Hints:
Blueprint (H helix, E strand, L loop, with lengths): L10 E2 L3 H7 L9 E2 L5 E2 L2 H25 L22 H14 L3 H15 L5 E5 L5 H9 L6 E6 L2 H12 L6 E6 L10 E7 L7 H14 E12 L5 H17 L4 H11 L8 H11 L3 E8 L2 E7 L1
Helix pairs in contact: 4-5
Amino acid sequence: MRGEAEKPKPTRFSSPLSLYSSLSSPPAQKEFVAPNGAAQDNPLRFFYNTVHSAQRRCREQEFYIYNVMQEKDHIFAAPIDRLGDFCFDHKVADVFPDMIKRSVPGYSNIISAIGMMTARFAQPHTQLYDLGCSLGAATQEMRRNLNQPGCRIVAVDNSAAMVERARNHLAAFRSDVEVELLEADICDLTIENASVVVLNFTLQFIDPALREVLLGNIYAGLKPGGVLILSEKFVSADDTVNELLIELHHDFKRANGYSELEISQKRTALENVLRPDSPEQHKARLKRLGFAHVDMWFQCFNFGSMVAVK
């Protein structure tokens, strides 16, 4: 109304750091507007809540590091007389974080990028799938970055040991996002109303004769604009390059503390269960199924990740 003093506009701060630096001379106004637009009565309360939230995330990470990642991978450290096929049993589940970190170059970068792409591609009131979820690292990153309403994540693995550990892992993190964790064969799963599907080093363990059928089911269940994130170990069509990439990968494992015996025995154990395709095979198959945009977004040695958008 006319004659009334104009209400002062609240001070905005671009970050908690800029807020902290201003506390030596706090603003006269009592109202504070946080970066997300929410009004707060007290800027100190906003700062406290921000710091408290960061501390909570650090405690969650510490729990994961000390309670999940504590066991070292020594599965192939001693000679094994009768070396069978590699399987995702309790022995592997117990050391899996250490194994994957020391065996797959760029794994942490891929997990982080899955979170980034979840934030970009997730659509409201849809489902997100982590197929072959192992201990739930990708599931957790999807959950952490999901910013759309009415979404749920379906995480699936056919290993009882992996599902058991994944359930404990995910329970250690607070989230309002619903996660359904299933012990099942992903080839028997119906994909529906999906905006994001992750196959993170999973397809390479599927029978080659079933891969196109599985990817076709994924394509059919994706909404327009939905994304498939496909991470795999690759084989190069050029034999010389392929041998080079294999040797570079073995050098990576040596640098991470694996012995020649461990490298050799694990390679033998994986021969019949991990059968990689070339990037060209992947691209041609995804295009054939109808994906509009397909390309490699990350590669380190003979490991990489592709993105396919419907």
